[in-house]
Amino acid sequence: MQETVNKKGIWKVIGASSLGTLIEWYDFFIFGSLSIVIATKFFPADNPTAAFLSTLATFAAGFVVRPFGALFFGRLGDLIGRKYTFMVTLMLMGGATFLIGCVPSYETIGFWAPLLVLILRLLQGLALGGEYGGAATYVAEHSPPGERGYWTSWIQTTATFGLFISLVVILITRTVLDENQFDSWGWRVPFLLSIFMVYVSYLIRKNMDESPEFKKAKSEGKTSTNPLKESFGNKYNLKFVLLALFGAAMGQGVVWYTGQFYSMSYMKTVMFLDSNQADMILGIALLIGTPFFIVFGKLSDKVGRKWVMMTGLALAIFTYRPIYEAMYQLTNLENKQENVDLRTTENKLVVHDSKRDSVQTVNKFYTDGTNEKITTTKHLVENTEQTAQVKSTVFLSGSKYYMLIALIFIQIIYITLVYGPIAAFLVEIFPVKIRYTSMSLPYHIGNGIFGGLLPAVSTYLAMNAKTTGHSDFYLAGLWYPIIISAVCFLIGSLYITKSMTHKDLNQ
């Protein structure tokens, strides 16, 4: 009977913790999901490539500051408790996301636009740096012995669900509004909606109790008076911090962001796939793959955390290039045959906000069901044509469409292997009194620095390879996650031991 009561209680803990964490991830990922649109709003429009790279850099900035959030909020969590600390992070994240939706465009306020967005993005990063460690620790400290991998894996699903919901909200907004409305103001809606979701989560979280492990340590006078010094000034504990980072977290970070963010950027900017199709394909793969977080979290309770995570890293190392080669060929029009008889051309004059554009749309249809839309836009100033902007968009159908879902799904499985068990792994190797601080830093360096920089670094490598004439330029960006994963696999395989991953939480 006691076990049933405990199970009911932990479901409440997971529900309250997961909802708040899911909303924080939603807030954080909206920026990445809309990076192509944001590039046109908050940065100069005269160089689209530079604007997109600047947007990715701003996106990455939110990840770079996550370790600082981990230190600041982790210290608070070990001093005053888990509950109140990640209440603060929730409010900070929600407020910053809402304000991004309110910032005027570059055309309106000039350089203040990217500056304000950067500041708000940094606040998002600080908030997320304090959120995850608190939520994972909170759930783990409520979990029955021997089941921590299973119960903490529910928290692991929130990041993917946060991305999934961000994609769904964007797709719904795009569907409800026409293209001009979305481009003009509709892209702000997903940011503004955040404030309502945060409020609901706040109402739920404020009634949560402190974790029993922390309450016990506090009642016995065993909490830390200086979590930072005890976490990183103690050589014995520092060894575990470094092993957690270089033997697990940095590899997990690059695999996570390759499968969920680089793949999205790759579909849109390298494969030139229609944005809605890319979001839908990623969304479907995420929805199908998310339950495997629970599967591999539970498996790690039975066989240990180490080899579940190492398997995910090994698969990524050896199969990323073949997977992305197959993805690229799905939209590689050089290898497709056009059905010329079906080609259509449409010319029209578009007037928007007193601007006049001459727009030509050419639709090409290929024998395998692929459709290409080439849009050429010429801005008219006193009836004089200015420099033309050409945009090519590819649409997949039939078996090609489902093949792309399968290729993304495989990458999601790799993510679930490395990410499903890692919360339990990190929680178990650190003592209660410094757990929030100690686990948060390696996690957020691994994900924030190594993982968060991946979209910008990999996109830059691909663009540089294309500029220098490499025939396989579209695979160049993969060297970053492959090398990081390989280093992590070697360190983790050699130095993570079974004994250190099954410590009793009651230390």
UniProtKB/TrEMBL annotation:
Family annotation (Pfam families): Sugar_tr
Transmembrane segments annotated in the record for this chain: 50-73, 85-106, 112-130, 151-173, 185-204, 236-257, 277-295, 307-324, 401-429, 441-461, 473-496
Domain Major facilitator superfamily (MFS) profile: residue ranges: 13-504
Any one of the GO CC terms: plasma membrane
Membrane topology: Multi-pass membrane protein
Coiled-coil residue spans: none
Keywords associated with the record: Cell membrane, Membrane, Transmembrane, Transmembrane helix, Transport
Domain of life: Bacteria
Location(s), subcellular: Cell membrane
PROSITE patterns per record: MFS (PS50850), SUGAR_TRANSPORT_2 (PS00217)
InterPro entries for the chain: MFS_dom (IPR020846), MFS_sugar_transport-like (IPR005828), MFS_trans_sf (IPR036259), Sugar_transporter_CS (IPR005829)
Protein name per UniProt: MFS transporter
Organism: Sphingobacterium hungaricum
